[in-house]
Structures are given as structure tokens and as C-alpha cells.
Task: inverse folding
């Protein structure tokens, strides 16, 4: 073999070597990995250049972005924010009351929740467009999860306290996730999960509300019902038709409330069975610190509810904030937003509010009304404050059926069948995730739907790891590039050489699969060659370009593959292994087994070296090597 | 822009196009994906060429490999198998009795379990080296999981019935996994998990047994204890020293049993407090069909125990089978092995056996004794049968302390600190998985250890997906290849062009991270260029070679990145996207947004095209394009 080796070395002298990375101290690697994982946005970069007092100001500005933008606040901004703020307040008041009813909480909580949390968010939030408030899905979740243990009708006080406690825990969780930089947990709720989940929740809420509405038909004339429903449905349709109807659409809920209340007031329908909101206490949020239930057994229910609703609310709020930030081209720091959401919910739980986040509908109205900064939230909070102080008696005669209609109208917008269709068109598995979440919520429960969707999403990721794609590569004519033969029909295979591309990291979950798959590729290729009477196989080149990571099982698999190929008198050649692969091959001594000479920078160079040896053997004097005679070599 | 486009088109005319794959019918893709996922080994390949009667024989041979190898069985094979079979029987009898005690089951069950299951496996198994029997870890798990609900001492009959039922469910699960081709579930128990788990279980068992042994010291002279312990420990050491001591080592347990029994018999130590096995019923396995507990509430415990022990036993058995198959260069079909294990445990549960698998120690002895086929299992079963029929009275005086020593000696071999050290050296996360499993088992429970290890393993996979590596690529001098600049110190960056490699599929779990990371790379690069007074950035090339898969969140991320770059007046260029990426970019219309002209086969061609335009702009007449004046272009 001495001659072959020499010839081989001559042939590959031009080839590039793949270096083994110089070992770095363990702590070094560990720290840099930790940084990449938890601080990918490098939040301290801006502090590094500053010092002393400036650094403190920077830190203050980091946690309270209001100090960053307030100095540049202009009157023009204020005018825009004022209009936007009043617009969202007119939406916030009826929606707040409706959603509080949905959560089986006293309606006044909806107003309280539109007062304190927006003020906190205005100071701490980094979004300019997010309008803070309660959301239907979280309200529904709260009702369904707390309702399992405590009946809102039989023990209203305990139920209320548990709602505050759940809000408190949700806030603590949100802030902790932000502080611990675990924001990526929220990323595991994919867009498709949320589409399906929201659609399912909306369907459930609509059916619930419709039941209530239809139940009313026996007690009263259905004129107002039909009119309200019609007006609501027309609003929904109009709101989809563009900005012409925007103001009408935004004002619809408040108009419905006013009209509905007037009809009841003058017709005295409340004495004929039409349920109305009834008395609302005047005055601002009472403190609720003493109402937190921090002892078992009820604390556990509140804790669980807080966790689930907190994550859901976070996912919605951050997705909404990111979407609008993208439209306006500014950056949202996910972890910072989480801290703001957490602080606003903790503050809320101490002032008789329940879970708030950034609802999509309200934020969209805020954005369309031309808001410039978080001041629109302040304006909304002030409008709600005035309502709390002076206008609560006006809601006495508001019929519940109007609230139901408001909920339904908001809910119908959440059933995003177009998004579902898009998912089907682009990615079938995402569609399955979406439908799984939808069906889970509709036929199971909100939690079942959520768990189903997250499980399917994670299973998809795991399946990708467990069953990576492995394909045969061929040479693209007129280039040195080797690409998948199923993707590039023109790619040509090389006689005597089998080039395989591995498309995933090699982990315990796929090491066995890959080993078996490689042996099947070789068997199939040998069968094919035998049938066609072509040259036999001599080299198996593995393109490791996409193998970004490898674990000990993967290393064993490489070792075993090398052995298996040796028994078949085939040479294993690696092309383009990454630094992690090289490092681990080296530290496990598998590199010595494979031979550093058989590792190339590119598939092209690897094929070149293989061809060179095949040539040398054919043209000449080297016959020791088993079955290389009569070889149809490739130029 | 007309001129730029023309110049650009001229420059890239030589470049290769990346085709959009022709759409295939949904059912087609679905079926081929299903096949890749569940039938990667193409088990029907061998049937395709056959027909009629031959096909039936093939199918019979598939499920009962004995029909495949039996016709070629020779006398030489039998001589080897006879020796190996007798050797493993001499190990199986004392180990069987010991492990049954470990599982808190009557000792005779250990003998029963070495009779029926090996016969079933000999017919159905595809391994030539696996010796079937009970294992310590599964025995321990059985005791710990069943023991939580039913006390083996207070309700021995119920406990026994539950053990049979758990075995039955384990067998059904194993066979189902094989038939449903879900063998990859076992792959999620990585090698590092098993090393840690086994070590932890071995530690717990040793401590338990030592307690028993040390407790005995007060009752009797410790001569025989010390001698047995010494002999056992010396055996362990010897067995590590190679094949010279092999026979001694293999015969040690039986020798200890015989010596221990003789000592007790002649010294009447059983009357001085040394516990002995006592009476063992003569006769073969009684049927136990009627003893299966198939009604709640106890069924659920048995079901859960069966699931957990079944998976563990499967993982051990298949790993052992694969290891020896690799030594001898034959193939083990994982799914077929599962069916064999399942059948052997279902048969076992009906004939008074408890959970069996292929223990490493016994299989290693089998292999070392020179076994040729599964006939060695038949010989062992026959030897155990003879023992059951005639020799059970001999075990009456066997002291339990000998059994404890046998267990400890087997357990010490399971604490594979060398493997743990290897894990630490090669892969720190695998080491954490291993230590997690170990500590979980030692300080928590067997289930906690297992769950910890599997969770850490899966978290690692998820973290890889959530935080993929994204690196800057540079040109390797004298080549068209672009590689990671941190891996290849010689790689050179291209002025005006930022080349980024994405090392993972783009999924919901990492889409946000990647978007932010790309923007940080660009910001850092622009900062760097500004500080050095170099050319500004014009092109961002994403090397998509390792992006084997993308979902709808990933597609949105691409769209948003394109928009974000546009606002910064940067051009997004893609290099080497795979067929799935191209298909989804196309079906979601994002391909139109990016522009098919900006997608290249290789990074080299993409850089070439970018440089060509930068040149044309510099040398000439094209000034419309924002900030391209005074450009220091690259040749």
C-alpha cells in the first residue's frame, strides 16, 4: 500500500486541510455557550461604553423606556396619542366589562384592569403601539381553570381572591422569565399553535354566548337582539373592508352599549327578564394585597392557573408587540417586554385587576388611530378613571346580551381561517398543529388544546432529529458543487464513489437510524451497480456540512460506520465537518481511526482525491487492493 | 435600476440556478415521508422479488429466523453452542435466583424465567449471541414500582400476580412497538442515559445488599461472608483481566453457591441465623394465565410498571444485541427484535416467568464461550429444565448472603466509570445526562433518574433547535469554498458582503432568535466597518445549506428579514437552499419578495455576483443606488 499512499498524497497535496480546533478551556466554552443561549441580543453592549452616572441612567432607561422617549415627546405626538387613547378607551370600557363577565368576575374588574396596568406598561413597555387590557382567551382560561375548584356563583369572594392570586403568580412568572432571560420558552408556542388555539377558544366562547342569547328569546321580544346582532355582524364585515369604516368599527361596541342601555332604560325590559349589568360601585381600584390567597390548598390552583394564563397572555402580548414593531421598524426586546408585563400584572393583582396583556384587537385599533407612543395607554387609563369616578351609573341598564354580542364580535375576528388555509398550503404539519389545537380546545378543554399543540410541535422537532433526511449527492455540471440528486435532476453521480449528505446533527436519537440508512444506501447502490454491470463501489463520502453538532452516540456511530465500511472494503471519506465534529472526533480518538487524510474541505476535493487514486491504480502497477481491477474510472 | 439589473444579469449568467421542485401530489409526499419515517430499512424489499409459496416461507422466516438458519446448522455449531449453553446455564441459575429475590419474588421464578423465554427467543430472535434472562435493573424497578402499591411481604399472592401482569403488558408493549415500527422510541434512551441509569441502579442495589450482608454479622461468624466477598471481588477483578480467567469468572457464581450451600449444610449455620433459600418446588413452570390481574385498580399499577420496565428492558436487550452483532458483522433488525422480546415476555407471563431481556453480562459470557447461534439458549433452557425437575432440593441450603454477593458482583460491573469519564472528555452535556440519571436514581428513585435523563436529553435537542449556531463565513484562500471564520482562521471576509451560515432548520422555536441574531450580526459588522473606516455593507448572503427544513414561522422570519434588510438598503441573497426551503418559499410567495435572481447554488457564486455589481457600479455610470458611492470594491 506504500505506493498508493504516496500517489494519494501527491494527488491531494493541493487539497485544503480541515483543522482540529485548538482546545479552549472548558470554562471559556461554557461561558460563551451560555452567552449565546441566554444573551443572544447582548443587552449589556450599550452599557459597556458608558460609566458611572451615565451608566445608571442607561440602566434606568433600560428598565423604564419612558425616560428614553419622554424627553423627545412633542405636542404633535400628544395630539395623535390623545385621539388614539380616547378611541381605545371607547373600546376598552365595553370590552373590559364583557371580558370580566366571561371570566365570571364582577364587571367592574374590567374597568379596574384598564386603569392601573396601562399606566405601568406606559412606563416600562418598549412597544409604541401595544394597548394594554384584558383578553378574551385568558379570561376564558381563568374561568375554566379556577371554575374546576371553586364555583364563582357559590363562593364569589374566594373566586375573586383566587383570580387576584393567579394574576399575581402570572406576573411573577412573566417577570422572572424576563429576568432569567428565558424568553425563548414563549417561542415554543408557535404561530400555528396560537392560530388554532385562538380559533378554538373563540368558537367555544361564541357558542357559550350564543346559548345565553338564544336562551333569552323566551323572555323578551327579540327585536333588540336581532338588531344588535345584525349591527355587530355588519361591523365585523365592515372592519374587514378597510379603513373607511374604521371609526365606525372602533366605536361600534360603545355605540351598542349606549343604544342597548337606552332601549332597556326606556322599555323597562329589565323587568321582563332581560338581564342587565346592575349596580357598579363608583370609585377607583381598591387595594387587594390582603386578598391574595397565599396558603394551600387553594394557592396551588391559583399557581397553576397563573402559570398557564401567564404564558398564554405573554405569548399573545409579545407576538402583538413584535408585529407592530415590525410594521413601524423599531425593535422590541422580548425579555424586557416580559419584565414590563410581569410588573404590570403584579401591580394589577394588588389593585383589584385581573390578568392583562396586549390584546391584538385593541392594539390594532390603537395603531390605526395613529398612536405615536405609550401615552395613548395613559390617555385610555385617564378616560377609564373618569368613567370609574363619575360614569358607572350609566352602565346600570346595559343589557348583558349587548356584552355577549361584543364578545362574539371580537371572537369572530379571532377565527382566522385564512391563516389556517395558508398553513395548509405551506406546511402540512403546521396545519396539523393548528387543527390539533383547535379541536383540542373545542372538544376537550383549553388546556388539552394547548398541550396537544405544543406536544405536536415538539414531536415535529424531535421527529426531524430522529429521522433526518439523508440523500445522495451528485456533481452539478460545470461546477465543483455537489448537490442532492433529487433536488437537482442534472446532478451526476461519480462511478465508484457514493456521496451521501446528512442533513441534521447526529444525536442519540438518530445515530442508529443513520447507521442503518447509510448501510441501506450502500446496499442499494451496490445492487444497482451489479444490475447495470457497472464498476463496483470503492469510496463512501459523507458530506458533513449540515452536521452542526454531534454527541457521544453520534461519535460511536461514526466509529461503527467506519468499521462496517472496512469490512466491505470501502473507504470512508468525510467532507466539510464542522469544528464541533472535528473536536469530538479528535477527543474520542475516532479521528485516528478514520484517518485525518480522509477528511476534506469540500466534497469536490474529496471526489478529486478518490478519483486520483482510482486512476493511479487503473493505469498502473498497484494490484494488491482487492476488487479494483477493470475499473471504469471517472475523469 | 434597469442598467444595474442588466449588468447584474450579465454577471451571473454563468451562475447555476436553484430550481423550485416540481410540486408532487400531497398523498405521494405523505406516503414517501411515512415510508422514510417508519420503514427506513425497507423490510419488504426481500419479499418483492418472490411470489406465492416462496413469499409465505419468506414471511415465516422473517418472523421466525430459526427457519432461516436451522437448515444450515452443523454439528460443529452444536458443539460450540453446547459448551456456551452449559456455561450460561451455570450463570443463569444462581443469577436467576438472586434477581428474583431482588424483585421480591419467589426464588423459583428466576429459574422459570430462564426456561420458557429463551426457547421463544431462540425461534424468533435475530441475534446469535444474546443470552436471555432476567436482569437486575428491571427486577429492581419491578420491586420499587409495584412495592409502592402492594407489599410483597403482606400480600405475596397479589404481588406475584401483578408481576405477571406487568410482564404481560411489557411484552404487549414491546411487540406493539415492533409491529408499529416505533422502535425509534427506544433510541431516545441514549447511551449516556443508560450508563448513568445502570450505574445508579447498581449503586442502589449494592447498598441494599451490603446492608443485608452487614446486618448478618451479628448473628454468625463472618468467615464465610468474608471469604465469599473476597472470592467475589477477586472474580470481578479477574474478569476484567481478560480471557485467561474467563472460565473461572463464569463459573464463580455457581461455585460460590455450591461452596456456600455446602458450608451451611455441614455447619448447620441456618439454625444460627444465616438465612437460606429454603424449599423450592420441583417441576416445570406452572401456567399463570388465570393469575393475570386485568381489572382496576391494580391493573393500572401493573400497566405503568410494565410500560417502564418494558422500555428499559428493550433498550438494554437491543443495545446488547446490536453490540455483539457489530462484533460479528451481522445485522440486527430492531423492530424484529422487539417483536421477539414481546412474544417471549407474553409467553413468559403465561408460564410463571417475570420480565426477561438480553442481559449484557450473560450475553458476554455466551459470546466469550464461543456460541454460534441461538441454540445456546436452548441448551441453557434444557439445563434449567433439568435443574427444575431434579436438582431444586440442592438449593435448600444456599445462604442468601451468597446471592447478595452474586448480585453485588454483577452490579459492580455495571458501574462504568470509564464510560462516564469518556463522556466528560468528549461531550459535557452527555456527561450531565449521565450524572443526572445517576443522581436521580441514587437520591430520588429509579423513575426520577430515568425521567431526568430523558428530559435533559430532549432539552438538549430542543436547545439545539432553539439556539442554533449562526456564524460568519469567509473565503478559504485558493478555493471557492466559504467556511466558518472561527473554525478556519485563514478564511477571509469579503468587503461589502456579509456571509452568514445558519446551522439548523428554521422552526417556530428559533425563528425569532435567528431574526434577532441576523440583525445583531449586521449591526456588529456595520459598527466594525465604521470603526475601521472600511467600505459599508451592501449584501447579506445567508448560506442555507444546513437549513434542511423550514416551517411557516421560518418562512415569516425570512420575509421579515428581507423587509428589515430592505429598510437598511441591504440586499438579501440566499445560497444553496434545499428543496424543502425552495418549495415553501415558493408556495408562500416569499420567493417573489426575495427574487429568484438572488438565490444561488453556492456561496461562491453569490459572492461573485455581488462583487460583479459592486464593480460595475464603481467603475461606472450607475449612481442611483443610495450609498454605493466611493466604494472600496473587492476583486
Result:
Amino acid at each position: 500500500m506504500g505506493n498508493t499512499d504516496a500517489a494519494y498524497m501527491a494527488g491531494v497535496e493541493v487539497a485544503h486541510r480541515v483543522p482540529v480546533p485548538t482546545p479552549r478551556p472548558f470554562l471559556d466554552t461554557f461561558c460563551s455557550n451560555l452567552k449565546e443561549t441566554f444573551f443572544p441580543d447582548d443587552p449589556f453592549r450599550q452599557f459597556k461604553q458608558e460609566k458611572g452616572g451615565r451608566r445608571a441612567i442607561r440602566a434606568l432607561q433600560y428598565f423604564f423606556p419612558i425616560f428614553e422617549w419622554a424627553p423627545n415627546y412633542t405636542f404633535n405626538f400628544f395630539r395623535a396619542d390623545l385621539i388614539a387613547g380616547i378611541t381605545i378607551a371607547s373600546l376598552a370600557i365595553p370590552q373590559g366589562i364583557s371580558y370580566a363577565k366571561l371570566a365570571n368576575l364582577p364587571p367592574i374588574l374590567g374597568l379596574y384592569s384598564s386603569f392601573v396596568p396601562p399606566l405601568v406598561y406606559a412606563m416600562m413597555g418598549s412597544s409604541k403601539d401595544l394597548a394594554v387590557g384584558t383578553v378574551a382567551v385568558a379570561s376564558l382560561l381563568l374561568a375554566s381553570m379556577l371554575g374546576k375548584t371553586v364555583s364563582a356563583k357559590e363562593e364569589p369572594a374566594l373566586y375573586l381572591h383566587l383570580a387576584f392570586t393567579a394574576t399575581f403568580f402570572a406576573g411573577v412568572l412573566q417577570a422572572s422569565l424576563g429576568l432569567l432571560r428565558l424568553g425563548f420558552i414563549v417561542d415554543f408556542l408557535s404561530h400555528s399553535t396560537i392560530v388554532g388555539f385562538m380559533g378554538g377558544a373563540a368558537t367555544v366562547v361564541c357558542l357559550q354566548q350564543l346559548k345565553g342569547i338564544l336562551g333569552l328569546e323566551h323572555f323578551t321580544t327579540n327585536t333588540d337582539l336581532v338588531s344588535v346582532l345584525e349591527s355587530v355582524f355588519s361591523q365585523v364585515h365592515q372592519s374587514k373592508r378597510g379603513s373607511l369604516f374604521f371609526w365606525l368599527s372602533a366605536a361600534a361596541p360603545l355605540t351598542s352599549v349606549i343604544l342597548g342601555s337606552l332601549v332597556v332604560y326606556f322599555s323597562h325590559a329589565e323587568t321582563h327578564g332581560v338581564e342587565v349589568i346592575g349596580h357598579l360601585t363608583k370609585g377607583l381600584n381598591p387595594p387587594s394585597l390582603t386578598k391574595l390567597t397565599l396558603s394551600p390548598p387553594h394557592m396551588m390552583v391559583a399557581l397553576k392557573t397563573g402559570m398557564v394564563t401567564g404564558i398564554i397572555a405573554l405569548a399573545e402580548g409579545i407576538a402583538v408587540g413584535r408585529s407592530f414593531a415590525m410594521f413601524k421598524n423599531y425593535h422590541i426586546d422580548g425579555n424586557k417586554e416580559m419584565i414590563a408585563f410581569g410588573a404590570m400584572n403584579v401591580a394589577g393583582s394588588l389593585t383589584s385587576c385581573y390578568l392583562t396583556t396586549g390584546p391584538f384587537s385593541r392594539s390594532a385599533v390603537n395603531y390605526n388611530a395613529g398612536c405615536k407612543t405609550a401615552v395613548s395607554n395613559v390617555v385610555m387609563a385617564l378616560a377609564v378613571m373618569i368613567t370609574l369616578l363619575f360614569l358607572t351609573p350609566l352602565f346600570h341598564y346595559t343589557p348583558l346580551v349587548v356584552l355577549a354580542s361584543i364578545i362574539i364580535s371580537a371572537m369572530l375576528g379571532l377565527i382566522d381561517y385564512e391563516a389556517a388555509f395558508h398553513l395548509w398550503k405551506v406546511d402540512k404539519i403546521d396545519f396539523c398543529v393548528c387543527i390539533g389545537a383547535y379541536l383540542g380546545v373545542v372538544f376537550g378543554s383549553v388546556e388539552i388544546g394547548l398541550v396537544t399543540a405544543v406536544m405536536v410541535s415538539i414531536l415535529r422537532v424531535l421527529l426531524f432529529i430522529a429521522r433526518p433526511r439523508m440523500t445522495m449527492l451528485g456533481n452539478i455540471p460545470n461546477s465543483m458543487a455537489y448537490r442532492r440528486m433529487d433536488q437537482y435532476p442534472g446532478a451526476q453521480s461519480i462511478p465508484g464513489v457514493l456521496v451521501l449528505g446528512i442533513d441534521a446533527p447526529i444525536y442519540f436519537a438518530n445515530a442508529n437510524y443513520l447507521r442503518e440508512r447509510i448501510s441501506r444506501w450502500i446496499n442499494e447502490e451496490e445492487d444497482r451497480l451489479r444490475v447495470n454491470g457497472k464498476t463496483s463501489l470503492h469510496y463512501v463520502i459523507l458530506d458533513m456540512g449540515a452536521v452542526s453538532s454531534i454527541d457521544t452516540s453520534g461519535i460511536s456511530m461514526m466509529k461503527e460506520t467506519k468499521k462496517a465500511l472496512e469490512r466491505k472494503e470501502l473507504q470512508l471519506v468525510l467532507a466539510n465537518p464542522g469544528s464541533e465534529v472535528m473536536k469530538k472526533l479528535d477527543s474520542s480518538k475516532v479521528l485516528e481511526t478514520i484517518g485525518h487524510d480522509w477528511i476534506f474541505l469540500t466534497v469536490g476535493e474529496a471526489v478529486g482525491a478518490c478519483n486520483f487514486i482510482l486512476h493511479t491504480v487503473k493505469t498502473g502497477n498497484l494490484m494488491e487492493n482487492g476488487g479494483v481491477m477493470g475499473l471504469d474510472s471517472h475523469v
Remarks:
- The two ends of chain A are 23 Å apart (CA to CA).
